[in-house]
Amino acid sequence: MGRAGRLRTAHVSASSAAAVTLRIHRSHGGQGRFALEAGPFTSVLDLLFTAQRRFDRSLVFRFACRIGVCGSCAVRINGREGLACRTRARDVGPEIALEPLRHLPVVRDLAVDLRPFRAAYAAALPALRPSAEVRTAPTPRAPALPEIGGQGDCIACAACYSASETVATAPGYPGAAALIRAASLLADPRDGAHAARIGALTPWLALDDPEATVVCPKGLRHETALARLRAVAARAGADAQA
Known about the structure:
Blueprint lengths: L2 H8 L7 E7 L8 E6 L5 H11 L19 E4 L2 E4 L5 H4 L2 E5 L6 E3 L2 E2 L2 H7 L23 H7 L7 H5 L1 H5 L6 H11 L7 H8 L8 H6 L6 H20 L1
Parallel strand pairs: 1-5
Antiparallel strand pairs: 1-2, 3-4, 3-5, 6-7
Helix pairs in contact: 5-8, 8-9, 8-11
């Protein structure tokens, strides 16, 4: 298909377009309300590009992959965290309000500074730390692979961090993404930092974070990871007392 054909395919025809109003948090002034049109498959990120291109080039937001893999475009959409690239505008409604993620410093408009989230994430010791025997250890057996891979699908978008009321009320809490990563590593027999990881996270394992599961774009269940961490911590405590 030629270039012109691609452009025609991307065009929203008048018959399929629906009017939407985009309201955007602006941190440094500038236009914050845009009357736009959305087709059946128009994403919220598409609307942001349209608003920026047609009306206000100073509008700032993050994006990268545009296919829900990188997590860069996470924002609050009508009061709930989501990926702008994977949220269809028509599924939200005729009024779409966009805000930056909570609990993180705003750089400008919808772009936030992720360094506090990444620092909290680091508390889980998120890198695999091979044990001394890893060179001779077998490849993880098939039953362990789903546990490692499933919880390892986190894209670190910080949606759970933003939605969490626990982050707001418990200073130092590492967040659901960190706990999910830790649970993934605990299922990996090659990792040699189980004790250190559990020791670092044990103070936070009594806290619940129900909002994390609700907003996770990958459908990861924070409560499942938390239950695994609590079980490992309980076994470690029992072994220490034996």
